[in-house]
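FAQ

Q: What does a record look like?
A: Structure on top, sequence underneath. For example:
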């Protein structure tokens, strides 16, 4: 891509996108910014910080002397991301809105909007690297292993990667903050965003309870003993400890309780004691809805590593195609709390190959779990 290319940077108000814009301008690109509003908060509190973030994006654009556009993708986010997540929660699964947002908003709606503005490419502050040649682009890990965000970007295919720039691929977060300070960006020390915009810092159960009916039911042990009451299976995920409100008792002293399974048919939340209880261990998983960076994926079984969550240490195993289009992943070592609905992302060294949505978890041999979610 020539340095005369017209690039629109998704300026979020954060330090990563700010430095991305600064780097691209320094490299000779024609740079413009675009601030995306992806969520319309429907209450009067201040959990969603869109206006404050826009002010930070404006200061960055003014400092760089570049135009700043503003686009509202809230309708697309509601139908493409939020409504999908609600359905997944109601089905007892644990979706990942950040991955869906990258796929359908940042690299679809934003990319389409940028092209209408005449852009040749879009850029974001993601920590990842695009490699390869036209038609054979690769998605590779960033230099900063702690910040690498390929887990969230595995759904990007050749069309998206051909039009994407990730200027922070070779940078570390401390270096990015230093550059932002030197550039005069007021957000140089702004904390990293956590969570997702439609929940923000507010209580997870309280927020989702506005959209999902609560169906309280029993919290039970593996042997069926009732220990308490849950607020609705949609509000819990496998491996969760917080929010169970199960204190110690004479009958069950010692270790804290964790969610081990969801009995959807009888509306029961099954819990066990101990972070590493055998019922929380899984030898493998089966996933569907696979997305491959190269558009095809491996034809036969492959040796690979995998992540079940962002920043997890890569876990080696074998990935095997099944006759129905799904794939089975068998780990070398059991993995804790594999959660249906979450993404599993597979790698070959530094290359992110793609990923799928976990459908079924495969309990470790001899696991006492009552049922498989």
């Amino acid at each position: 891509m020539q340095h005369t290319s017209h690039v629109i940077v998704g300026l979020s108000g954060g330090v990563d996108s700010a430095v991305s814009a600064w780097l691209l301008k320094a490299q000779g690109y024609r740079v413009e910014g675009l601030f995306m509003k992806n969520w319309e908060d429907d209450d009067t509190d201040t959990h969603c910080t869109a206006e404050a973030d826009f002010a930070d994006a404006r200061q960055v654009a003014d400092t760089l002397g570049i135009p700043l556009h503003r686009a509202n993708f809230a309708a697309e986010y509601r139908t493409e991301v939020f409504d999908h997540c609600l359905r997944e929660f109601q089905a007892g699964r644990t979706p990942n809105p950040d991955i869906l947002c990258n796929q359908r908003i940042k690299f679809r709606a934003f990319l389409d909007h940028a092209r209408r503005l005449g852009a040749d490419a879009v850029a974001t502050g993601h920590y990842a690297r695009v490699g390869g040649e036209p038609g054979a682009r690769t998605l590779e890990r960033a230099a900063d292993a702690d910040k690498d965000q390929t887990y969230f970007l595995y759904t990007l295919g050749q069309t998206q990667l051909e039009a994407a720039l990730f200027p922070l691929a070779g940078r570390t977060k401390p270096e990015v903050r230093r550059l932002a300070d030197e550039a005069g960006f007021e957000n140089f020390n702004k904390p990293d965003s956590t969570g997702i915009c439609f929940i923000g810092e507010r209580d997870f159960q309280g927020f989702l309870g506005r959209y999902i009916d609560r169906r309280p039911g029993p919290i039970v042990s593996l042997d069926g003993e009732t220990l308490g009451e849950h607020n609705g299976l949609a509000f819990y995920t496998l491996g969760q400890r917080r929010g169970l409100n199960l204190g110690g008792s004479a009958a069950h002293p010692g270790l804290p309780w964790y969610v081990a399974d969801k009995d959807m048919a009888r509306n029961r939340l099954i819990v066990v004691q101990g972070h590493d209880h055998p019922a929380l261990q899984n030898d493998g998983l089966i996933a569907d809805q696979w997305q491959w960076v190269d558009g095809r994926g491996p034809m036969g079984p492959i040796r690979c590593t995998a992540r079940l969550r962002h920043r997890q240490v890569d876990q080696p195993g074998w990935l095997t195609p099944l006759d129905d289009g799904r794939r089975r992943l068998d780990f070398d070592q059991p993995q804790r709390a594999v959660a249906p609905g979450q993404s599993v992302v597979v790698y070959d060294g530094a290359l992110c190959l793609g990923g799928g949505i976990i459908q079924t978890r495969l309990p470790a041999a001899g696991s006492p779990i009552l049922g498989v979610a």
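Q: Is there anything notable about this one?
A: The domain at 6-183 is CATH 3.40.50.620 (Rossmann fold).
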